[in-house]
Amino acid sequence: MPLNDIRKKIDAIDSQLIQILNEQANNPSDHAAFVESEVRSKLNSISDGRIPEDSIFFIYREIISAGLGITNESKLSKLVQLLNDRADCVHIVGEIKKKEGLQIYAPEREESLLRKLSSMSDGVISEKSIRAIYREIMSAALALEDDLKIAYLGPEGTWTHQAAISKFGHSVEYLPQANFSDVFECVNHGDASYGVVPIENSTEGAVSHTLDLFVDSPLKICAQILMRIENGLMADIDRDAIKTLYSHPQVFGQCKNWILENLPHADQVEVSSTTKAACIAKEKAGEGAAAMGGPLAAEMYGLTMLESGVQDNSNNTTRFLVIGEKTCPPTGDDRTSLLFSVKDEPGSLVKALQTFEAQSINMSKIESRPSKQREWEYYFYVDVSAHAEDVNVVKALEELKKHCSMIKILGSYQDIKISNTTN
Questions:
Q1: Are 7 and 113 in a shared domain?
Q2: Cβ–Cβ under 8 Å, residues 330 and 387
Q3: Where in this chain does the record put each ACT domain (predicted)?
């Protein structure tokens, strides 16, 4: 069967799935409670094994989180059957893609699908919930189509881990790496399909380690993730028993005013990650230990989130990049990242930047970094609001060559402006 026909079949299944979810949203009396052991048992008795048990559970957990849990067994069976039928179609798509040498994961198609599904719900279900549910449906599909592995800056439970899950879901395999360089190497050597690294924070600025690694790496940017950073206070003790706070220094900086107002007498101990902080809070609870960080770290160590959203800036967002072997085709709403170094001539930088203005290309970001090859020589990292294949960008790059000693396109990818959630 042709690829387009299979995709039409998947679209029809998605339409039925959205219809079931809309019916649940309009029938609050049929909403099921969440007891993990009971949910797993019920789902396992219904599913025929075409989708792994854990994947079915991850999908249904998001359905329940959206307040759409199903008590009607016939309706639940229909939901699981549709998910299994979708998995069959996805498997066929994967086989066709492999035969034709196409990439299994297509981030530009993923975002287009999510937007279409959200519109199909007609506002009955929030876009946030649709995205969370389908993140897990597509994660199960990726796991079935290909043995997808995602490298990220570890350890487990960090915001980079959370960002990776928000993009790829729980069904794929994650490979925590000790540092930024290891993430790049893991993908470059084929040990992981993609990598996830932070590139900038809305309050702290650019992540210089990531910028520097692009100079010599052959990897491309194929997607971005915007993650709203909401730090919280977590502990295994009551709030009034807290004597010492553990966290990463950046988190302490982001929550400085809140700590002064709410826990002014608590000692602050800096550690290497929020995951490490959560581990210490669990081990030293009897000594009055607590941690500050994200919900994933709290979940991993069985800590209670005593208060959420304690960062001083409520608009604290980190942008992460997904890196892989190939970049993405144009979508009509793209961003291109590139780096260049200018010739050692008067006015070179001004002339280089004017090439984008001349083609009416918006430059949304520029950062400079030392080249580390010669004193006072710099690389410039630029983001523009267009795709590298757009005619005006091609013309600008041709002109840019006249003023630069080196130009490197890091990748073009969809310019997503929606922050992912932390659930």
A1: yes
A2: yes
A3: 337-414
In this structure, is residue 288 part of a structural domain?
A: yes
| pLDDT tens-digit series, residues 234-248 | 999 999 999 999 999
Catalytic residue (choose from 318, 327, 336, 422) = 318
Domain count, the chain: 4
Indicate whether this model's pTM tops 0.90.
Answer: no
Residues in CB range of 156: below 8 A, 6 or more apart: 174, 176, 275, 300
Nearest residue to 162 via CA among 316, 328, 298, 337: 298
Residues 88 and 57 in one domain: yes
> 279: which DSSP letter?
H
Report the C-alpha gap between 172 and 165 in whole angstroms: 9
- Structural domain boundaries, residue 371: 328-414
Annotation says 318 is catalytic: yes
pLDDT at 213: 94
Q: Are 212 and 191 in a shared domain?
A: yes
Alpha-carbon distance 406 to 113, whole Å? 37
Active site residue 252: no
Catalytic residue among 320, 327, 336, 422: 320
- Is the bond preceding residue 155 a cis peptide, omega within 30 degrees? yes
The two three-digit tokens of residue 176, written as one number: 């925590």
Token pair for 386: 């267009």
Condensed to tens digits (0 to 9), the pLDDT of residues 27-43 reads 766 666 667 778 788 88
Token code pair at residue 399: 């002109």
Q: Which two tokens stand for residue 37?
A: 């052991």
390-420 confidence digits (pLDDT tens): 999 999 999 999 999 899 999 999 998 766 6
List pLDDT tens digits, range 315-334: 888 999 999 998 899 988 99
Domain CATH code at residue 29: 1.20.59.10
